[in-house]
Structures are given as structure tokens and as C-alpha cells.
Specification:
- The complex is a heterodimer of chains A (133) and B (661).
- Chain A has 133 residues and is mainly alpha-helical.
- Chain A has 5 helices and no strands.
- In chain A, 59% of the residues lie in helices and 0% in strands.
- Chain B has 661 residues and is of the alpha/beta class.
- Chain B has a domain of 166 residues.
- Chain B is elongated, with a radius of gyration of 49 Å.
- The chains are: A mainly alpha (133), B alpha/beta (661).
Chain lengths: 133, 661
Amino acid sequence: MKASRPTLALGQESLEKYKEVNRKLFKDQLTNKDLFFLAVGFGVHFNARVEKFEKSNTGPRTELTDDDLYLLLAVAFDEADEDEMLPDEQKRNEVAVQYAEGGIRLIYDLVTDKTEEHARTAFLREFQKTLQG
Amino acid sequence: MRIRSLDFQNFRQHRDLSVAFDSAESDFIVVHGENGEGKTNLLNGILWCFYGNEGDSKDPGNRSNSLVSRAAQDDVGDGQSVTVKVSVALDFSQGMTARIERRQVFQVGAKAAVPLGKSELSIVTSTDSAAADAASVSNPELWLDEKFPERLRQYFLFDGEKLDNFFSTAGTTETVEDAVLQITQVDVLTRMVERLETVRAGFENEVSAKSGNVSIRGLQKDLEILVEEESVIAEEIADRETQAAEFALEYQNIHTDIARLLEQTKDRSAYEAARATAAEQESSLVDLKLQHAIWAATQGHLSMLSGALRKSLKFVLKQREDGLIPAAIKPSAISELLTSETCICGSHLGENSSGRKSLEELLVRNQEINEAGETVIAFETALQGAHVLAKKVPSENADFSSRIEKLQAKVAESQDLVERLKKKVAKLQNGEDRLNSLQAVRAAKEKNAQSLADSRLKQTQKKSQIDEKRREFESALRKDSSLKEIAGQISFVDELLDLARQIFYELSNEVREEAESVLNKEFKRMIGKSDYIASVEISEGFKVKVFDNRGFEILGTLSAGESACLAFAFALALNKISGFEMPMVIDTPLGRMSPDVQTQVAGSLAQNTKSAQGIPPQQVILLMTGTEYNDEVRAAIAGRNPLGYRLNFDVRTSESHLEVV
């Protein structure tokens, strides 16, 4: 597959959530790509896909590597039938941003109204749960 | 003076008790028994014999009918009489002896035994122990008042648990002053002064009644006003002196606290170091948690996507099985082999060789791989890489968690240390507060001292005004022929008053200094810490002060045991300066002390009352409970060769018996 460099459009209302999560949990040390994949991970693990939401013009693009795109492809393929071929680029992107939207909302709920330290503790506790099952 | 024997008849549980303390044996006597077996009633019996009452004995039953033995009442029946008798035989120095006996007849009734008339006191004395010239004393009460003044009994015949009252917070100065002046009988002068003042007032009233001279009445009125004003100033001075004493004590206590707290400054360094360590560890913990969170975000998401990765890899494997994905070969490497005409195994790859043909077929098939196949291969590579990373996530997470847990344990440990040190340091903080208090007290103390000085100056001025007015008054009296005689009498009383006041001042200072000297010596001997306790003083205001070797006043910080020792030393000092040579009978002497202090005090008491340098031993009778008279206390007083008695109460007969141990 030739890697394209798409804009994975984030939810308009979630842009501030990404910023808040990055500030409180990671002291602004994560890139947009890191945050996007974290949101996708949470969205997939907790099955928190949001199909309809207002999209923005912002999202990870140039920083995405081929491996990143293949990972998103795996996410999209996860819902395909056994004998189906690999999803196309549009489908891949659509599925990824929907999971990311659900994921960022979950993470934001963990950190909202908490101090940095408490937010981080809550995030790590939730992360530990993902490893247990 | 010593008690030679005691005889009790029908006195409470001592229905028939007789004991002789043979002087050849010992003057240090211990009577021990449990509560209710009659120890306190031995003391009460002696008090009743001497004074006809039991005073402020701790036994609340200070009623005459309760004196009668229950067993005796039961034996005689209602309407019959029972005689209660207590007899105390005394030996004085130079061979004189005396037997003091008090008896009281009671009529036994259904509910109580009623005293019939007053108790009778009789005393028989003799100038030698054989009593060859025994004679009854005609006025036994007067005789007793000379030998055993009732007002002094609290210093010789007392409940040991009340000893610390001498130094209780309220009225300490008065208590000590009263004790020293009473024991030396200097207080008689106080009463004399009071009496003379009353007499003088009577004369002045007489002048007022008899005199028709207006100017004399005016002078008398002026004098009265001045005296009244002086008495107000005197009250002010007394209040300020009390305040000054309180300020001084508070100031010294704070000063002592500060000195002690300063010694603990090393705790502050330890506290600061522990706080710095804890803060550093806490900061490291925050950093580590941040690292963990960042790692979880950048690596952990692979673990969350592991389900999708597995499914995709399964798909790729199926593609391989279906032949869509070729074996992993490199076409360029095969082309190189064909160009070199030599296989990696060394076989010749000539034009028509089978090996060459196989490789050429392989290249052809490889070229047939379609675009989908390339994608799947690339997909597989990416998935494999992600899968490897995802598999590492749990162990790396466990590593982070373990490091965090260890650091958290260290933080908890440090915080615990900080808390422990904080409590110590809080005292230092308290020390800073105490320093502020010290400054406040010092300011108040100085202000009070200034007011006191002002009041004293005012008093001096007022007194000189009074003297002047009095001279004027007396001069006017002398000029009036009808009042001449009274004037002379007033002058005489004034002279006596001056003299009595002067003598009182000199004597009270003398006995105070003597009491101080003996108390100092007795307390230091008793406390056994002469390197710590520097001195004990009784100030001019009769305030007892204890100084440590740094010059700090430490009365307020003495331990319970040290306070008890001070009180005992004071009792001994009173005894020694009294000149009465009275025996000491102490009930529950060690009751409120810890075991080690009991041992120390008992040992000191035994040591300090034995004969020394030609002075005969002082007789001491200790009435102890079993708890007080323990093995350690026995060992401590063994050197004094004590006479031991045990009281046993027989519940069947309601009588106590004394047996020699």
C-alpha cells in the first residue's frame, strides 16, 4: 500500500479536550499523533466509537508514518468479515477518527475537575485496567 | 521526746491494743497493714488523746459516737455504757516521763453510742523513768499546750498524702510562712501586735467619745482618713507583691522551658533534612508518574489495539496459505547469483543447469506478485513490529509500577519521619511562642515592679504623714488636761507596737534563714542529686525557690517524687527548727509516689532522722500500706534497724491486733 498522508479530522468540540488532556496528564509533552493514537487505543479498547460528530480541519497528517497507517488499517480491518479484503483508505480514516473521538471523550472525563496529580493517577489506574483484560 | 507506749481501749477497731516501743531497739517504727485494718485510727487515736478531736484527719468519721468499738457496743447491749480510753506514754530528755490519757464514757443506744459528758484528760508526770515521784498535772490542757501545741500538730502528726499542700499553687507563701512562724512560735508576736492595735483603737475611740475639743476631733478624723488611705495602699502593695511573685515564677518557668528547648535544636536540623528528602522523593515520584503516563500513552495504545493486530495477522497468514504472499526472497540477490553463475552452496549455475532454471522460474513467479500482495507483506511487517512492541507493554508497565511502588514506600517512610520530627520541632515552635511570652511577661513584670515601687513610695509618704499627724494629735491631747492620761497610754502602746514589730521582723527573718538552711540541707540529702539541684531558698516573702545548677528556678518543673521529697524535707526542717523534739507519726507517707521515689524517700527519711553528732535520733512512726512497705522500701530502711509491726483486722470480732514482725 502506498502511504498517503491524510488529515484524520478530529472532532471540532474535542480539540480543547485534546489540549486539556495533554496539559494535565502529560505536561504538553505529547505530539498530536501520540494523543490521537492514545485516543484510538482507548476508543477501541472500551468500544467507545462515535459515528456522528462535527469534524474540524485539524488532525495528525504529516507526522504519520507507514507503520502508523497500517496500524489504523488493522483497526479498520478489525470490524471486517474474515474473508473480506483490506479496507480502503477512506474507510480506514473514517473508522480511526470515530474511535479517536470516543476515546478522547473517555480520557477527558477522567481528567476533568481534577488536579494534575489526581488526573494522572486516574488515567494510570484506567490504563492498568486495559492490561488486565 | 519519744512515744514509749500506746494503749487503746474500745477506740474503733482497736478494742484492746497495747504496744511498747522499746528505746533500746529502734526509734524508727513501721506499722503496716491494708486499708481498713486500723493504721489511720492509730494516728486518730493519738490525736484524740492529745486534743480531744481528730482534726482534719482523712477519716471522715469525726463524730464522737464513731469512736466506740463496734465489738464493745455489741457486747454490752443497749443502754449500757462503754468507756473509750487512749493512753500515750512519753519519754522526755533528761529522764522525765509523762503519761497522757483521755477517756470518754458513751451510752450505747440502738442506733448510736452517745457520749456522756465531756472527755476527761489526765496527765501524770515523773522526773525519772521509775516514776517514783509520779504526780498528776493540775492543768493538763495547759501542760499539753506547752509540750504539744495543737496548732503545730499538722507538722508532726499528719497524713503523708497531704504533705504536698505546702507547695500547692494557691497560698504557698502563706502556708510556708505560717508553718515556719507557728513552729517557732514567732507568730505569737503577730497576735501581740494585733492585740496592741486593738487596744490603741480603743483608746482613740475613748478620745473621740470624751473630747469636746473640735480641733482634736478634726485631727483624729484626719488621722483616720490617712490610716484608711495607707491601708488601701498597703492592700495595693500586697496585690502587686502577689503579682510580682506570680510573674517571677512564670518568667522563670518560661526561661527554663526555653533553655531546655534550645538543647533540642538538633531536632530542627534533622527535621529540615527529612523534609528536604521527603520533598525530593515526592518530586521524583511525580516525575516518575509523568514518565509512566507518557509511556502509557505512546506505547500502551499498542496493547489496547492488540485484538485488532491479532485479527489482522491471522488474515495475513491466511493470505500466505492461499499463496497470495510469496516466500520472503530478494529478487536482486537471485539476480546476483545468476550473474555470478555460482550458487551460495557452491553449485555451478550454468546456462542449462537445473539450479539456474529453478532460480529463473522463481524470479518469474516473484514478478507475478500483484499489488495486493505487496500491500499485505508491508502490512504484515508493520503488524509484526507493532505486535512485538505490544507484547512488551505489560512487563514494561509492571516495571514502572514496581518503581513507583518502591518510591511511594520511601516517600511514606520519609513522611512518617517528618511527622515524628515535626512533633519534636513543634515544641521548638512552641519555644518561639514561649520566647514571645517571656518578653510579654518581662514587660508586665517590669511594669508591675514600677507600680510596686510607686506604691511603696506612696506608702512611705503616707506613713510619715500619719506619724506627723499622730504627733500633732498626741500633742493636742497632752495639751487638753482631760485627755492627758489617755494620751500617755496611747504613746505607751505606740512604743510597744514599734518594739513588737521590730522584734517580729528580726525574729521572723532569723527563723526563716534557719528554716532555709535546714531545708536546703535536708532536701539535697533526700533528693540525692546535688549536682543538679544547686540550692533551695526561702525568700523574704517566705516563698520557697529551688534553683538548678544553671541558676534557673525549677520549683514548677520538679517531678512528683522530687516535690514529695521537698515536702518531706520541709517537714523535717520544721521539726528540727521547732525545738520541740516531737516524734513524727506519718500516715501513708509514700502513698502518692512511684516505686523508685518511694524507695529513695524512705531511705532518706531513715537516714536523716537517725542520731548524728551527739543529737539523739528523732522518733518516726510510719503507718504504711502493703504497697508502700514493699521489698525495696524494706531494703532502703534496713540500715535504720526499724521495728516492724503488722496490723491484722479480724472480721469476726471487728477488732484489729498488732503483731511484731
